[in-house]
Amino acid sequence: MTTTASASPQLGQFPFDFAPQPTQDADLLRQLDFVPGLKEVLTLRQVHALEHATVWVLSQSSGTATARADNELLGGMSTDQGFYLYGRVNDSQLRQAVQSALQRIAGGEWDLAVHPRCGTNLSVAMMLTAGLAVGINLALPKGPILQLLGLGAAAAAAAQLAPDVGALAQRYVTTAIPFNLSVVDISVTHDFWGREAHFVRVRWVE
User: Fold this and answer.
1) Between 9 and 151, whose confidence is greater?
2) What is the pLDDT of residue 158?
3) Which domain range does residue 127 map to?
């Protein structure tokens, strides 16, 4: 999920010489097809990556954005059926951006899958803050001043670590390169909360 509320990806190889394989999710699904919900999870990860890539492409092609800019007026939310795109964009522009994003990310621009405004980063920041706070609470004496200082240090450390750890979590956990997706249609609709948005519907292909 990309919030609507800034830096562009550095395109290229994943760290640790990791190269996504076009058949990896399809092979996993064939081997573990007895696992309930596996296809939905695999699809959601790929949709999430396509959502991020589409936001990047739209940002880079907008009149006010440059190749290194992020249009903060655009955001998205992924489901296993497709993703909602929030923000002012016309149907033709979105259709072109989705196809371009799908082609570029599957063609090797894998870092388009990672976005700094993704909700994953917020979740990681919260977990890091909680974990560091608990650790410092156990390590420091129980005096209120030291505990408050420790809590501040935990929050500062989490803020510094969250962007990088969040990017890794997106790259390896919450997104996957959409090798198995094709776009079915794009329509204007309303999400679960009644907000108007474009919905990019996809389907799984082997």
Assistant:
1) 151
2) 85
3) 120-163
- The CA distances from residue 163 to 48, 84, 119, 121, 159, in Å, are 18, 24, 11, 6, 8
* CB neighbour list of residue 121: distance below 8 Å, 6 or more residues apart: 162, 163, 166, 167, 169, 170
Rounded-to-integer distance, Cα 203 and Cα 1, Å: 19
Positive or negative, the Cα torsion across 103, 107, 109, 113?
positive
**Do 155 and 101 have their domain in common?**
no
pLDDT tens, position by position, 27-45: 999 999 999 999 999 999 9
Classify 162 in phi/psi space as left (phi over 0), alpha (psi -120 to 50) or beta: alpha
Separation CA 178–CA 200 (nearest Å)? 14
**Do 70 and 159 belong together in one domain?**
no
- Please count the structural domains in the chain: 2
How high is the pLDDT of residue 173?
A: 95
- The DSSP call for residue 44 is H
pTM of the predicted structure, to 2 decimals: 0.84
3-state secondary structure of 198: strand
Do 33 and 135 sit in the same domain of this protein? no
Are 73 and 92 found together in one domain? yes
Give backbone dihedrals phi and psi of 98, rounded to 5 degrees, phi first: -65, -45
Tell me, yes or no, whether 189 and 151 share the same domain: no
